[in-house]
Amino acid sequence: MPIPRLVAQVFSCFNLLRVLALFHESNEINLFPLMITKLFHLRYLAVKCYVDLPASISELQNLQILIQEKFRAKNTSLPRKIWAMKNLRLMHLGTISYLPNPRRNSIRNKHMGMPNLEELFGLCSTSCTNKVFSGIPNLKRLIIHQTPVSTERRDNYFIDMSSLTKFEALKCFNYNLPCTIERFVFPTSLKRLSFDGCFSFPWADISTLVMLPNLEELKLKDYAVKGEVWRLRDEDKFESLKLLVFSGLYLERWEASSDSFPNLKRLVLKKCFLLKEIPIDFGEICTLESIELHNCSIAAEDSATIIEQEQADMGNNSLKGAEAYFEERSSNAIFPMQNF
User: Fold this and answer.
1) Are 139 and 195 within one domain?
2) Which residue range is the domain that position 133 belongs to?
3) Are residue 205 and residue 296 in the same domain, yes or no?
4) Which of 60, 73, 92, 256 has the fewest CB atoms nearer than 10 Å to its CB?
């Protein structure tokens, strides 16, 4: 019996199935098993296949979690009918995925769109339009992959998330497509922000993020920022920031005061080979709990030693073992600090 027919026969026996994870390594199956779309009671579907999701996926009206992984690493397009899946809460897409704008009546009709969607991973940046965001008004977490924009659209190209009033976390990947942070319009509710890849933002752009009053985590990785000096002005204050991560940046000089990060708890530096010094004034940040250095310069570790001593002088004693990391000059040094 052909495998597709066998699959259909198997699924026909499980009409009340609610959870399904389907993975098959055989090259013989290159079609999405359409019988799955008849499993009306499905709440959770994880599928690994060669092809795009069919339009009939919208028949799964009770589906809440959709996870798709494709064998071939190529971009994919979601069917427009996916906007009819009003109970979706989480959608993880294994490849860069294009989500078409909902039809105009999809926004007007309260029964259309995906009002319950809170988490969407794998969206291409060209799908980040006002029309798309208006169809997912309660989105909280989003992963975007930056994709090329046509020349005629470039001047007016923005990713405007200001309408997402419940939005909390954004992660952006970039594959050698430099841009400015002015292309992003963030909602004030944003708490976690990560840029990974060759955005090549100037450090002045990063300083503008102080305008996000609820930002608690900021991660800049793998050439996300271009420039050797980050100089923060007295008025530049990341009031709510608790976690700051730099990884794979060519930062040499970092000029900031303790007032720039008054509530910082954790600082993580990875592969910052050129950094000459962590701002010594960080020794006065009373909330600081740990500084982690992974494959950074010895000069950066030396400044962490000074900061640790200042913390100890304030009564914020480091945990046992921190001195050993300093003495060994380990390429992966962790300097924890414990608050009283």
Assistant:
1) no
2) 1-102+111-145
3) yes
4) 73
Q: Given a cut of 60, is residue 154 above it in pLDDT?
A: no
Number of domains in the chain: 2
Distance CA 304, CA 334 (A): 9
Spatial contact of 64 and 118, defined as CB atoms under 8 Å apart = no
Task: Check whether residue 139 and residue 232 sit in a common domain.
Answer: no
Torsion of CA 318, 319, 321, 326, to 10 degrees: -20
Nearest to 333 by CA among 285, 300, 284, 289: 300
Tokens of 136: 């997912």
> Which of 64-73, 159-168, 293-302 is the least confident region?
64-73
* Residue 71 forms part of a structural domain: yes
- Say what the pLDDT of residue 95 is: 85
Does some domain include residue 131? yes
Q: Are 132 and 199 in the same domain? A: no
Residue 157 lies inside a defined structural domain of this protein: no
Model confidence at 261: pLDDT above 80: yes
36 and 132 belong to one structural domain = yes
H/E stretch holding 153: helix 151-154
Domain co-membership, 96 together with 11 = yes
Chain position carrying tokens 């009306």: 40
Residues 17-28: tens digit of each pLDDT: 999 988 766 654
Q: Residue 336's pLDDT band (boundaries 50, 70, 90)?
A: low
Average pLDDT score, the chain: 85
DSSP for 59-121 reads: G-TT--EEEEEESS---EE--GGGGG-TT--EEEEEEEEE-PPPPHHHHHSTTSS-TT--EEE
> Hey, what amino acid is at 318?
S
CB contact at 8 A, 140 and 111? no
- Confidence band (pLDDT; 50, 70, 90) for 71? low
